[in-house]
Write a structure and sequence with these properties.
Layout lengths: L2 H18 L3 E8 L5 E8 L2 H10 L3 E7 L14 H16 L4 H11 L3 H15 L4 H5 L8 H13 L2 H55 L8 H37 L1 H13 L3 H22 L4 H11 L3 H15 L4 H8 L4 H13 L2 H56 L1
Antiparallel strand pairs: 1-2, 1-3
């Protein structure tokens, strides 16, 4: 055998060994201990090991094959925060039911619809099986599990109450994602109104106005100023529509890059968001709710207040409150009470400060913070519902003004011609 052939053989053996260590999903059919036909799916590194595992479970396989990958690439579906919240809740439920941690990973992974999330869970399981703690295994994926999440899990492992801590973390993630969903709902609705108005107006200017313009050319009379103005806009859009499209796309790109690269610009936007009419109040209440929810969860987990405030600062999502929380941390570190520190920042509502004061005096700070979070989450929910109800007639008014204005501009010459005749 030549040296080149030996090199190829070694490379092939190495490749097969690497691929064989990867977890795969197999579909199987067979009979159970009672002789009943059954089928299902099982994960394993090879068909032989999957058969061995089924045999250990009392299943005699008649058919087993690797599960094919989805045709349209859903295996690369992005993992979103809601997937993490569902995984945490399911893992907490499994452990509370007395299922061992490693076995819980298999059960949860098999029940997840997102293939990417399922793979992530199996990778975490591999880390735990190799002797790492759950928190250490989660820290390998910082894009999905932040420092707060990992710190709370580590606290649960150290105290021997991991299932209870996972339940707390799951509740925290669910509440946080629900709040984010409400905020997105409030922001998307006005954006949708503007988009619809722009599209309808553009169609009328490009398709309808030119038809009337051809009709007006045979009148031989001066057109009203309003009509001339609308025709001028229509002619510009027909000849330079691509400039407008490029301008919009370029503006969006510049805005996104400026926000990402310039901390000053990003901070100015955070301040501006809180001052917006209607929407600003929703963001304000949501930030207070997020502050209270995060601090309640960390403090109840046994994290010292000063350390908990570090996690709270990054979780607020707004630079105004991030700076306020850092100031609170400095004050609390010097021995000042939390309620006085919050009041001195002038960014927290009096009710939240008063509830914190009651919590500190009664020794139930986490419970009071939880009540504050629930109250402001409900306020956000009501505000979003109110905004939705307000936007429905506003949509009709905006579209009526735009469409009605264009129609009026087009029919004004016809009305004037009729009066002259």
């Amino acid at each position: 055998m030549t040296a080149q052939a030996q090199a190829k053989m070694k490379k092939g053996i190495k490749t097969s060994q690497v691929s064989s260590n990867k977890q795969q999903i197999f579909s199987w059919e067979g009979t159970d201990k009672r002789g009943n036909r059954t089928s299902g799916e099982i994960s394993g590194v090879s068909i032989a090991l999957a058969k061995a595992e089924l045999r250990r479970q009392g299943v005699i396989t008649s058919k087993i094959k690797r599960k094919p990958k989805p045709l349209f690439g859903t295996a690369n579906k992005r993992i979103n925060p809601l997937d993490i919240a569902v995984f945490t809740r399911q893992l907490a439920t499994m452990m509370k039911a007395g299922v061992p941690l490693v076995q819980s990973f298999d059960i949860v992974a098999d029940g997840l619809e997102n293939p990417s999330m399922s793979k992530l869970v199996r990778d975490i399981k591999t880390g735990v099986e190799s002797g790492n703690s759950l928190a250490a295994s989660l820290r390998k994926y910082p894009q999905h599990f932040d420092d707060l999440f990992c710190s709370l899990v580590a606290s649960g492992e150290q105290s021997g109450a991991l299932e209870n801590m996972l339940d707390r973390v799951a509740t925290y993630k669910e509440k946080t994602e629900a709040l984010k969903s409400k905020i997105k709902k409030a922001m998307k609705y006005p954006a949708a109104v503007v988009a619809v108005a722009i599209i309808v107006t553009g169609i009328l200017l490009v398709k309808v106005v030119p038809t009337f313009q051809e009709l007006f050319q045979g009148f031989g009379a001066d057109l009203p100023a309003f009509t001339q103005f609308v025709i001028g806009i229509s002619e510009w859009m027909q000849s330079s529509w691509f400039i407008m499209v490029l301008g919009i796309i370029g503006g969006m790109f510049v805005f996104k890059e400026a926000k990402r690269r310039s901390q000053t610009f990003s901070d100015a936007l955070d301040k501006l968001y809180l001052k917006l009419p209607v929407v600003g109040n929703i963001l304000y209440q949501a930030t207070v709710a997020r502050f209270a929810r995060t601090l309640s969860t960390t403090f109840a987990a046994g994290v010292p207040l000063v350390d908990a405030l570090d996690s709270v600062a990054s979780a607020t999502g707004n630079v105004v409150y991030k700076r306020a929380v850092h100031k609170i941390k400095d004050d609390v570190s010097s021995g000042q009470q939390l309620q006085f520190s919050m009041k001195s920042t002038n960014v927290f509502p009096p009710m939240a400060v008063q509830m914190v004061s009651i919590g500190e005096e009664s020794g139930a700070l986490d419970a009071m913070l939880d009540k504050v979070a629930c109250y402001y989450e409900e306020e956000v929910d009501n505000a979003v519902d109110g905004l939705t109800s307000l936007m429905e007639p506003l949509i009709m008014a905006i579209l009526g003004i735009l469409v009605g204005g264009l129609i009026t501009a087009m029919y004004l010459p016809i009305f004037q011609l009729g009066s002259v005749v």
